[in-house]
Design a protein that fits this description.
Helix content is 47%, strand content 15%. It contains 15 helices and 13 strands. Strands 3-2-1-4-5-6-7 form a seven-stranded parallel sheet. Helix 3 packs across helix 4, helix 4 runs parallel beside helix 5 and helix 8 packs across helix 13. The radius of gyration is 22 Å and the shape is globular. The chain starts with a strand and ends with a helix.
Length: 389
């Protein structure tokens, strides 16, 4: 017998933190208990091919603005799809997924889950208000960090509806031996070159400007170091990539800051890194932070959102204030100069992730949440005697 049908509604399928998490979840869910399908607002991104190859149904709802009759028509189409396919659980992600999917799902599905995975500094006051109203219709608001829950409670969300399931790391990706010399040759830098690596989607609020300025601060002291900015650029963000490259030229570090684009060998890059940096101005619980820790990379991260929930300053990495170039540069320099400290922090970070933040733990917790919400709705529908019969 097939399992409960779960529809995941996502804005896009590009390679980012949220996308990596829902893809790991889709790969890991017990297919004897849950049948997965996807809906997106834009059929774009590197995960489209994987979903297609895995035979997972994927539907597209082309919505560019919620202030249109077309958006209402697409929501009605989603409700019909949920009914026709017998979807029991709708799990929406982030502002656009939540606002689009939660209201029609409330009419057609048994269980509705909204996911909020950061503190949304990029949303307007009106957008935050609209999302809050939409999430009132959900059975559960799923978050990935205590910091996000605290923010939502302060914004007026019902605390009893908020559930925390922290991000998970696929540890099998970090079990392979790494040839650091080969990676450096592939990057076109001399063997032995110190690598400072940032893996990030190239968008504002990721602190990439501060990273470039920190590279400039360290230019005289660490002439041999190279700073890698690794990540995918959405079409709408290409002007921002040009801005970053221009800033590197203006700071005199264009030859030291390498923009690699999206790479498939991120675990190996992190394992080969002398320092991994997460300079974000805002985060919840960053996948890249956890992957850096899983790879055993000595890590410098900004003290934002849920980062201190995973990384303890001086024990599993170094924390610095967000948006401040000098402390960021000093922490990077400290790890480049003190290899013993760097190695100790890397080992401790790797052990912490293996004990507390595996993808298996995340998948198991999500399966339990799905089952509990379904059981709760079944009890309400049939009553305790019929449900237990």
């Amino acid at each position: 017998m097939s399992g409960a049908r779960v529809l995941k509604v996502v804005p896009t399928l590009m390679c980012g933190g949220t996308e990596n998490q829902f893809m790991m979840l889709a790969r890991g869910l017990d297919r004897s208990r849950f049948d997965i399908e996807f809906a997106c607002l834009r059929r774009w991104g590197s995960f489209v091919d994987e979903i297609t190859e895995r035979g997972i149904p994927l539907s597209e709802y082309k919505v560019t603005t919620f202030r249109s009759v077309h958006a209402l028509a697409e929501q009605a189409r989603l409700a019909r799809h949920i009914t026709r396919r017998g979807v029991q659980i709708v799990h929406a992600y982030n502002f656009y997924g939540n606002v689009f999917a939660v209201p029609p799902a409330r009419l057609a599905a048994r269980v509705v889950i909204a996911s909020i995975r950061d503190c949304a500094p990029y949303l307007t006051s009106m957008q935050k208000r609209v999302q809050r109203y939409a999430c009132r219709l959900a059975d559960c608001v799923l978050v990935n960090a205590d910091a996000v829950k605290s923010w939502l409670v302060g914004e007026g969300y019902d605390e009893s509806k908020i559930v925390i399931i922290r991000n998970g790391v696929d540890l099998t990706r970090f079990n392979q031996p790494t040839d650091g010399d080969a990676i450096r040759r592939d990057l076109g830098v001399p063997v032995g070159t110190p690598l400072v690596v940032v893996v990030s989607r190239l968008t504002r609020l990721k602190g990439l400007e501060q990273l470039i300025e920190a590279a400039a601060v360290l230019k005289a002291r660490r002439k041999d170091a190279r700073f890698l900015i690794v990540g995918e650029t959405a079409p709408s963000q290409r002007p921002y990539l040009d801005e970053l490259k221009k800033r590197a030229v203006e700071q005199g570090v264009a030859d030291r800051v390498l923009f690699t684009g999206l790479r498939s060998d991120v675990p190996a890059l992190l394992a080969a890194a002398d320092v991994s940096v997460m300079p974000s101005l805002s985060e919840a619980l960053s996948n890249v932070l956890l992957e850096s820790m899983a790879a055993g990379a000595p890590t410098v991260a900004t003290r934002v959102g849920g980062t201190p929930e995973a990384l303890t300053d001086g024990e599993t990495g170094l924390l610095v204030p967000p948006g401040q170039v000098q402390p960021l540069a000093a922490a990077i320099s400290r790890l480049l100069d003190d290899s013993a400290l760097a190695a100790h922090l890397g080992r401790a970070a790797r052990q912490f992730v293996r004990q507390h933040l595996s993808v298996q733990r995340m998948v198991s917790a999500t399966e339990q949440l799905y089952s509990e919400l379904l059981a709760r709705k079944q009890c309400k529908q049939y009553g305790p005697l019929e449900a237990s019969a």
